[in-house]
Amino acid sequence: MIIAVDGPAASGKGTIAKALAKHYGLPHLDTGLLYRAVGVSVTRADGDPGDAADALRGCAFDPALLDDPALKTEAAGKAASIVSAHPQVREALLERQRDFAMQDGGAVLDGRDIGTVIAPQAPAKLFVTASSEVRAQRRFRELDAMEQGVSFDSVLADILARDERDSGRSAAPLRQADDADLLDTSDLSIDAAVQRAISLVEARTADR
Ligand SMILES: Nc1ncnc2c1ncn2[C@@H]1O[C@H](COP(=O)(O)OP(=O)(O)O)[C@@H](O)[C@H]1O
Ligand SMILES: Nc1ccn([C@@H]2O[C@H](COP(=O)(O)OP(=O)(O)O)[C@@H](O)[C@H]2O)c(=O)n1
């Protein structure tokens, strides 16, 4: 069974995807980490994330980079959202994600285009969202524990800019697939959000 989990920054999609993977005993791929690795790799090579050739070179990153804590910073998130708008970059990362989705037994993937591009055949698709204020508050708490000098206002501004870039690009924009279930986590605890996600997946896969 393939479970596709998409949504904007800090909506809780990663938390839900990990919990679903544990519940169903499936492997999980956080596809945002791939784009973050490309963004960081371009920046470290003094390249320009907005330049398609530089961004494409960044796709040949060392797999060890995926474990680097630098990928969790907001700067990495911003660079990721810039490189991810290049169709060449999306193409370069496509096969790896599709192979993961198609492995025997199934998988859970989270990102922006899992239900629309990577695994449109997935029987269960969740589009996880939350208000921008709630998302900024969650991300602020994470970043504040990790980096110096982070302000709530700058995190909110970054999240809004990233939403606009991710939804406005022409290559695989962030959007809810027609057959995806919407899960708004603004007023849900993590436990409640995970329970709701399991119920939605059960309802979609009950007759399989
Ligand atoms: N329903 C929720 N209520 C409160 N905090 C949450 C909820 N879901 C996720 N979080 C917290 O918000 C932060 C971002 O969640 P995460 O799942 O990483 O988001 P995303 O993958 O969408 O960027 C994490 O610190 C996580 O623990
Ligand atoms: N499947 C995906 C996953 C991420 N991305 C891009 O990568 C950036 C970082 O993704 P992420 O999932 O790690 O970010 P958060 O939602 O955790 O903040 C996003 O803002 C998107 O621009 C994408 O284009 N497609």
Automatic annotation (TrEMBL):
Q: Which reaction does it catalyse?
A: CMP + ATP = CDP + ADP; dCMP + ATP = dCDP + ADP
The record's subcellular locations are: Cytoplasm
What GO MF annotations does this protein's record show? ATP binding; CMP kinase activity; dCMP kinase activity
Identify the EC number(s): 2.7.4.25
Query: Is Cytoplasm given among the entry's keywords?
Result: yes
Listed under GO biological process in this entry are: pyrimidine nucleotide metabolic process
Q: Where does ATP bind?
A: G7, P8, A9, A10, S11, G12, K13, G14, T15
Any Pfam family the entry gives: Cytidylate_kin
Q: Which SUPFAM superfamilies match?
A: P-loop containing nucleoside triphosphate hydrolases
Instruction: Determine if ATP-binding is one of this entry's keywords.
Output: yes
Q: Mind listing the UniProt keywords for this protein, alphabetically?
A: ATP-binding, Cytoplasm, Kinase, Nucleotide-binding, Transferase
GO CC entries: cytoplasm
Cite the Cytidylate kinase domain residue spans from the record: 3-202
Q: Which family does it belong to?
A: Belongs to the cytidylate kinase family. Type 1 subfamily.
HAMAP family for the chain: Cytidyl_kinase_type1 (MF_00238)
User: What is the protein name for this chain?
Assistant: Cytidylate kinase
- From which lineage does this chain's organism come? Bacteria, Pseudomonadati, Pseudomonadota, Alphaproteobacteria, Sphingomonadales
